[in-house]
Design goal:
By secondary structure, the protein is α+β, with helices and mostly antiparallel strands. Helix content is about 25%, strand content about 40%. It contains 4 helices and 8 strands. Strands 1, 2, 3, 4, 5, 6, 7 and 8 form an 8-stranded mixed β-sheet that branches. α3 packs antiparallel against α4. The longest helix is centred in the C-terminal third of the chain and has 19 residues.
Length: about 170
């Protein structure tokens, strides 16, 4: 049979099922399996060969060493959110020096798949304004070489290497 003889139904576009209408027709108690998309912003803060890190807990209650970041509010701009969150989580007011590569990853929260995209910024300290907020258990400054193995996530190690290179390049200019 040739392709020209295959008859396809000629549905008007208004009758095609969409993902929204499919999920509206789910049976009571059936789970919505669509993924959630989240956007965050954070900062990698360097000072004199050291990096600012936070110790906190993940969704499963495990200790995590990472960089401060926050889920964006609907009207919030990534740079503003990153600067605000670094100060709230660490007690250091910072300024953005440059943008770092974004990170993307998947995880599960309450049985739903979540795809998170984080926009990262290389930052420098302006001043210390206080201490960490309640979400953070520890705030530490570590030499980059000591921080690399302590970071929980490989993507954070990649970010730190990139930020440290940028810091070295700007210092040599």
């Amino acid at each position: 049979m040739s392709h020209s003889s295959v008859q396809l139904p000629n549905y008007p576009l208004t009758q095609l099922p969409t993902s929204d209408t499919f999920f509206e027709r789910m049976a009571p108690g059936q789970k919505d399996t669509r993924p959630t998309f989240e956007y965050s912003a954070g900062g990698v803060v360097l000072r004199e060969g050291q990096v600012l890190m936070i110790g906190t807990r993940d969704l499963k209650g495990r200790k995590v060493w990472a960089f401060p970041k926050v889920k964006l509010n609907p009207s919030e701009k990534s740079p503003d959110a990153a600067v605000r969150e670094v100060e709230e989580e660490t007690g250091y007011r910072c300024r953005i020096e440059s943008e770092l590569p974004r990170s993307q990853y998947w995880f599960r929260r309450e049985g739903r798949r979540v795809k998170k995209t984080v926009r990262w910024f290389h930052m420098a300290v302006v001043e210390q304004t206080g201490g960490p907020d309640a979400e953070v258990e520890e705030v530490v400054w570590l030499p980059v070489a000591e921080a690399l193995p302590r970071l929980t996530y490989p993507s954070d190690r990649t970010l730190l290497r990139k930020a440290a290179r940028m810091d070295e390049e700007s210092a040599s200019c």
